[in-house]
Amino acid sequence: MNEREALAAIAADLPSAGDDCAVVGDRVLTTDMLHETTDFPDGVTRYTAGWRAVGASLSDVAAMGADAEAAVAVYAAPEFDPDALRGFIRGAREVCEAVDGEYVGGDLDDHDEFTVSTTALGATADPVLRSGASPGEAVCVTGSLGRTAAALRWFDRGDAERGNELFRFTPRVGAGVALRPYATAMMDSSDGLARSLHQLSEASDCGFAVESDSLPVDEAVRETSDGGREARERALFVGEDFELVFTLPESALDAAREASPTPLARVGTTTDDGVELDGDPLADRGYGH
Amino acid sequence: MNEREALAAIAADLPSAGDDCAVVGDRVLTTDMLHETTDFPDGVTRYTAGWRAVGASLSDVAAMGADAEAAVAVYAAPEFDPDALRGFIRGAREVCEAVDGEYVGGDLDDHDEFTVSTTALGATADPVLRSGASPGEAVCVTGSLGRTAAALRWFDRGDAERGNELFRFTPRVGAGVALRPYATAMMDSSDGLARSLHQLSEASDCGFAVESDSLPVDEAVRETSDGGREARERALFVGEDFELVFTLPESALDAAREASPTPLARVGTTTDDGVELDGDPLADRGYGH
């Protein structure tokens, strides 16, 4: 049983799970674990690892439309090099500062594989869930897609500097808060746009129709792809770009664009059912790397 | 550099760390990681693992004198057996319910070694820190010491049922909240009483003088020890009993006993400096197993 099947099997045991964060009164809480073999390719610095790991949890806070309050992390490694550890903490602190949150520490643990678990706490009395979309709305994405896909290729090619730069991202907390009054459903694109659309479709019980020409494919992924088609595929399926994917009434789109500190791309509309790209079914898969 | 030296090296980078929880406004937040090789001996069920891992974080909330609000966990394993996962979730949920908190879910992660990271959120506007003790106060411990030491021996001997039973503990949230008006410094005994006293001594800049006859050594550890001296050693150094260790004015002791739902043992007094047992220096070590 893989992770996804297991999550489905236990859904009934955990009715409060299934969104980017758990809602606890007027707070939202989320936790993640990242580790070397699957999340930190050769060349990722500990500074970038701290930034990215804590950023992934802050992105979940953003996806609820919540303000970022604080984050903690467990740094687990076979040895504790003080410079590496300081780099990690600096990355963790800076990504928190980038979204007006506070990095408040955590714990160390002896572990064979470099592993990081992060937790973020956010505040909102009115979180945006994945379940509020209905047919006939606009579907939008913040920023651009494919930065992580590009980073992975740079790491593969041994250009760690470009890889690290692309691997650090600004969690869309500012956009999430700005979009809260308008968005009917929202999540982050941590598993790729394709997976996100399927997850929103399932949670909201409506369909999604997306046009490939409207996808905000990042220049960095074009630059590292063999043509526009491959770039688009990677932007759709690789994921981990930590952009916000959300729906809102067409009539609210102008106001949302005005309010959001991050550019928004309108990529399609919600429909009665199915998830389609240019009229064809869009595969429900992610983690293309 | 080991975990402890590394923590000391980075203390300046993280001034907000160093207590059982980080304080974030009127909330407290704490995170931990436990894993199979060091924390879950052969025979520990997933139900017990869920209970204990989440309980360890709730114990940190208790140590701040905070109410328990919610907990989340990441369950990382090489495979996801639904029964094992359900057992874990049931343990996590039940330990939360035992302290009037809510288990609100978490995440799954593919990992070679069974690893759990847990986070707990608590609420108090007036947390009890480790730093408030001064000479001439009473030193107390909730409940009893040595349950974990006894559990480890039962696991060693192949009696997993007794091991599991002793491995599940009730986090002292009720006692922590009740003691909040009286305690001047408090922490949990996760690294053993000896380590806890040294940590309180360092944080509060005062000494501790403890009498061995007054230690609340659990019957379970006596039963699995070769005489009273060994039982006492194991109660002092093995740790992970998750009891509260705290100081308070002698004049507040009766009121604190009255308020606390858990029995309190007065084990000694605070002094000007040094950490002593029966007048001799007490070793600053923990993790005896």
UniProtKB/TrEMBL annotation, chains A, B:
ATP binds at residues 106-107, 130, 190. InterPro entries: PurM-like_C_dom, PurM-like_C_sf, PurM-like_N, PurM-like_N_sf, ThiL-like. It holds the Pfam family AIRS. Its EC number is 2.7.4.16. Mg(2+) 1 binds at residues 31-32, 107. It comes from Candidatus Halobonum tyrrellensis G22. This is Thiamine-monophosphate kinase. Mg(2+) 4 binds at residues 20, 30, 60. It catalyses: thiamine phosphate + ATP = thiamine diphosphate + ADP. Mg(2+) 5 binds at residue 191. Pathway: Cofactor biosynthesis; thiamine diphosphate biosynthesis; thiamine diphosphate from thiamine phosphate: step 1/1. Reaction mechanism of ThiL seems to utilize a direct, inline transfer of the gamma-phosphate of ATP to TMP rather than a phosphorylated enzyme intermediate. Substrate binds at residues 39, 240. Catalyzes the ATP-dependent phosphorylation of thiamine-monophosphate (TMP) to form thiamine-pyrophosphate (TPP), the active form of vitamin B1. It comes from the Archaea. Residues 255-289 are annotated as: Disordered.
